[in-house]
Design goal:
Layout (H helix, E strand, L loop, with lengths): L9 H4 L24 H6 L8 E4 L5 H6 L11 E7 L10 H10 L2 E11 L12 E11 L18 H14 L3 H13 L5 H17 L7 H14 L10 E3 L2 E2 L2 E2 L2
Parallel strand pairs: 1-2
Antiparallel strand pairs: 2-4, 3-4, 3-5, 6-7
């Protein structure tokens, strides 16, 4: 709560434990000229391409995503975004606005890892507190393969390349049903030949029962490599006054 560009909503946070962490200690003036949107970063060559994005920006997630609606969201294959169900910060967009933005750009909500806060003097009571925020997981809908991609840097990823990247993300989160849907979509669009599709479907069936961590197939090796990266992005847990779901997708990310 100490690194937001938005002012904390003291009327809300003061009701809950550890509200002192939302006390404003210093206000830093950032010139507008130093702030660039995702689209500007791509247009000016600072970033070549974004495939997947994980956002935890203390209430600014909508603004960041909205700043990429021209060049980033059309080619983005997935996102894990922190969303608020209550206004932790003043005048911040809530989950419904983030969700509508993502749906308008061809994404579907796959899962939400919910986080609950307990009110002061009640943290030792059994049960969970109030739903305050969560991490929303979005994947692109299958029908985006029917549309042409967009790029500002002269390079639009091929549909086969996008398919493989989406498979990787699906396997990171162990969303096997989505991965199977991708394989069937890829086959119907001619992005995978019949032999590839059958082989991958067979491997997915095996790893979904045996577990990716112990399986030695292509998907198993791919999963272990991606988990190394994901483990470095795990958030810290809370200290008793709050509780969260342990999984997002089908992986434990806390």
């Amino acid at each position: 709560g100490k690194s937001s560009i938005l002012k904390p909503n003291q009327d809300l946070v003061s009701q809950f434990c550890d509200s002192e962490r939302f006390q404003v200690e210093e206000v830093i003036d950032i010139p507008q000229a130093r702030v660039k949107s995702l689209d500007q970063l791509i247009e000016e060559g600072y970033i070549r391409q974004i495939d997947f994005i994980k956002l935890d920006a203390q209430g600014s997630e909508y603004g960041i995503l909205n700043g990429g609606r021209k060049h980033v969201l059309p080619n983005l294959i997935g996102a894990q975004v922190e969303v608020e169900f209550e206004p932790v910060y003043e005048n911040q967009p809530l989950f419904n606005e983030v969700d509508q933005l993502m749906r308008n750009h061809g994404f579907q909500l796959m899962d939400i890892r919910r986080s609950y806060w307990k009110r002061k003097d009640f943290q030792n009571f059994a049960g969970k507190g109030q739903l305050i925020f969560g991490d929303a997981l979005y994947f692109k809908r299958f029908n985006h393969f029917d549309a042409e991609g967009q790029s500002s840097n002269g390079r639009t990823p091929s549909k086969r390349e996008q398919l493989i990247k989406q498979l990787i993300v699906a396997l990171v989160y162990q969303m096997f049903d989505y991965a199977v849907g991708l394989l069937k979509t890829g086959a119907s669009h001619g992005l995978l030949n019949g032999e590839e599709s059958c082989l991958y479907l067979k491997e997915l069936s095996q790893v979904s029962h045996k577990g990716l961590g112990t399986y030695t197939s292509f998907f198993g090796r791919l999963h272990r490599a991606s988990q190394t990266v994901l483990n470095k992005l795990k958030p810290q847990s809370y200290l008793g006054w709050a509780d969260s779901d342990r999984e997002i997708g089908n992986i434990r990310d806390k």
